[in-house]
Design goal:
It is a single chain. This protein is mainly alpha-helical and 689 residues long. It has 32 helices and 12 strands. Strands 9-8-10-12-11 form a 5-stranded mixed β-sheet. A 3-stranded antiparallel β-sheet has the order 3-4-7, with helices on one face. A two-stranded antiparallel ribbon has the order 1-2. Helix 26 links the parallel strand 8 and strand 9. The protein is globular.
């Protein structure tokens, strides 16, 4: 199947890029923050990195190929052909590249030839340094990935089913996917607000649409890359945590802290138990996300985020790769700082890139190319790197990464939004706290994160001990910058979207908490008290997340929302309307207009509003349209919207905004104004132009 071949080429092409342009990762010789050599299991770095690089590159190749063929009947065919050809070429070039001398490693402040033990040997690559902890990490990452992907979105007989807890986000996801796999969304527009632009980071969903176009069912087209992205994120987090701490145990614990959040929500949930409900029933059968802070009932910080926002794990992967690339520069800078501020901040080595350009440029291109795959993660990566760069050696290397990243992001924004920025920056202190007062913010963080920050602060004081304490503190404090940004700066009209930055900081901070727990457990003095503290802390850091997982599981099999595979209205729209048709509708979410790959003038307004579109303006246009009582005036006003069809069903007739129109004989006005091109018991479609 072409879709499977495409995914194989993603690994092959990405592997070529990984070896060619990221040599210090392809042949790693990392040292921990304490200065120990870290024997990494290399596939946990190389395979996820290869997938991410290849999926990014071939996704862009497919999109640009399709965009160039946008005037044809089948632009996706041209895009798929371009991506497959490029993937075949780079995959074929991979074995030739492996014959070259092994890449360079970063050691003692400069790039050096790797030791013989690090050179490319297939047997060593797969077998060396693999143990029980790595096997547990792989198993847990795979199980968690299946839990958040296939468990929430599946095919069941004649229908595609999605869990009720992912239904809201899947409305724009499916609309975007189908606009490519069944439609012709070039130049690309947001399906819920067709205006010729797109401000939403959509390319992960485009790639899913490509997989469906190449033959995968819709569920597999989204679930399979979601699973690969989530598993890649878990393995890269394991690798980063292992590099930082030199502890496989701490690295494994970091994965659990990612998936099972810390919060006091569990205890507030216990306090809400009705007197006539048993404890087992209350804990095991809950179907409402727990927590008392704003929007926790949405599942805004638990496993549901990974199920809802399938592109998030892919974005986190790119952040982790960037941190792994630049970590040696931070360690070199902190070593220089121990010799005095002048050695760190005023020496030539403190600023001059080594090697020139080529060290930071690939990282910058990688981040810049990902701006419309997951823009907030690109911003978060640049924030963390900026914090690290202040205390690193070769600081200009960070500039060589930041400049292409920002340039490519700006270029894509101009291309996709046509000058309408997707960002609406404004100062907003406190994020989702009740107010911006320090007391309310502190209380909000305490309720939301439980003992996380208490333990994190203790970890900063401890920071692993030894000469690496300074580098550890700088790194983990830099990892808080996305959270600080979310609590001070509103990037889009919807402040809640900053939860992704908060989650990223908590994921990276969880490495420090895991490291401290491991140190408590392994300490040789006061063994029993230390282990009691470690076990208690581990329980408090994960109890809420465990209850979240039970709630998520219950919701996923409770009243799923279904898309019927055979639907007369969907089939007619797909077969009888042009692929770029725009429909006037009521407020719609999962709807035949979207499942047929077409676009809406104004779908569900929240999605478009949160992306920065003027939904209130369109509401006013629709209000004026349905205030017309003269058929000719109505027809003229409908044509002025730019839409092609008007779909009248319960979403429109049941909307109180238009109740007066239909009460005054609106159906007859429509029949006089516009020709009917489709009608059944539930819907009537009028042609506007």
């Amino acid at each position: 199947m072409l879709a499977v071949l495409y995914l194989v080429f993603c690994f092959g092409a990405g592997g070529f890029l990984f070896c060619r342009f990221f040599p210090t990762l392809a042949c790693p010789a990392f040292q921990s923050l304490r200065g120990q050599d870290v024997p990494l299991y290399r596939p946990f770095l190389a395979l996820p990195a290869s997938f991410c690089l290849g999926y990014l590159l071939l996704g862009w190749a497919a999109y640009l190929g399709a965009w160039l063929a946008r005037g044809t009947q089948r632009p996706m065919a041209f895009g798929a052909g371009a991506a497959l050809a490029l993937g075949l070429g780079l995959t074929g070039a991979g074995p030739l590249h492996l014959r070259r001398p092994a890449g360079r490693v970063w050691r003692s402040g400069r790039l050096q030839a790797p030791a013989a033990s690090l050179r490319r040997r297939a047997a060593d690559f797969w077998a060396r340094d693999f143990g029980a902890i790595q096997a547990l990490a792989l198993f847990f990452g795979l199980a968690a990935g299946l839990f958040v992907s296939f468990y929430s979105f599946w095919e069941d007989g004649s229908a595609v089913s999605m869990a009720v807890n992912v239904y809201s986000d899947f409305s724009p996801h499916i609309a975007v996917i189908r606009s490519f796999s069944l439609g012709n969304n070039f130049p690309t527009q947001y399906p819920h607000f067709a205006d010729g632009t797109i401000r939403y980071h959509f390319l992960f969903l485009f790639a899913a649409g490509l997989l469906e176009y190449l033959g995968l069912p819709l569920t597999w087209a989204l679930n399979l890359p979601s699973l690969l992205s989530f598993l890649s994120m878990m393995l890269l987090l394991f690798t980063l945590a292992h590099v930082l701490t030199a502890s496989r145990g701490a690295a494994l614990l970091s994965l659990f802290f990612l998936f099972f959040r810390s919060s006091f929500a569990f205890f507030s949930f216990l306090g809400q138990k009705p007197a006539d409900t048993g404890w087992a029933q209350w804990l095991l059968e809950n179907k409402t996300f727990i927590g008392t802070t704003a929007h926790e009932d949405w599942g805004l910080f638990n496993q549901n985020v990974w199920a809802n926002q399938r592109h998030l794990s892919f974005g986190v992967c790119l952040v982790l790769l960037a941190l792994l690339m630049f970590l040696p520069l931070l360690q070199g800078g902190m070593e220089a700082l121990r010799r005095g501020p002048a050695a760190c901040f005023f020496s030539r080595k403190g600023w001059t890139p080594c090697p020139p350009l080529l060290w930071g440029l690939p990282a910058g291109v990688l981040l810049g190319a990902a701006a419309f795959w997951h823009g907030s993660m690109v911003i978060s990566a640049l924030l963390i790197l900026a914090g690290m760069g202040l205390f690193s050696r070769a600081r200009l290397t960070y500039l060589f990464a930041a400049l292409p990243a920002m340039a490519l992001s700006s270029l894509q924004s101009a291309f996709f939004t046509k000058g309408a920025s997707p960002l609406s920056l404004q100062i907003h202190l406190g994020f989702l706290a009740p107010s911006s007062s320090p007391g309310d913010v502190a209380e909000y963080l305490l309720l939301l994160t439980g003992i996380f920050f208490l333990f994190f602060l203790a970890g900063l004081v401890w920071a692993g001990g030894g000469k690496g304490r300074g580098a550890a503190r700088v790194f983990f404090l830099s990892c808080l910058l996305p959270l600080i940004q979310a609590f001070t700066l509103q990037m889009t009209p919807d402040i809640a979207v900053g939860h992704k930055q908060v989650m990223l900081s908590l994921i990276l901070g969880g490495i420090l908490n895991a490291w401290l727990l491991r140190a408590l457990w392994r300490g040789r003095r006061f063994v029993l008290p230390r282990r009691a503290v470690a076990l208690t802390a581990a329980a408090l850091l994960t109890l809420t997340g465990l209850e979240d997982a039970l709630t998520y599981s219950n919701l996923c099999r409770s009243s799923p929302v279904q898309i019927q595979k055979q639907n007369a209205l969907t089939d007619w729209i797909r077969e009888q309307t042009p692929a770029r048709s725009v429909f006037l509708t009521g407020y719609i979410t999962i709807h035949p207009v979207f499942t047929a790959g077409r676009l809406a003038y104004q779908g569900w307004p929240y999605y478009a509003w949160s992306a920065g579109y003027d939904t209130s303006g369109r509401d006013q246009v629709l209000k004026e349209l349905f205030s017309c009582r003269d058929p000719e005036t109505f027809a003229r006003a409908a044509r002025d919207t730019g839409a092609d069809y008007l779909l009248v069903d319960s979403t429109l007739t049941g909307d109180e905004r238009f109740a007066a129109f239909f009460a005054a004989g609106g159906e007859e006005i429509l029949r006089q104004a516009l020709p009917v091109v489709y009608q059944d018991e539930q819907a009537t479609i009028y042609q506007i132009r």
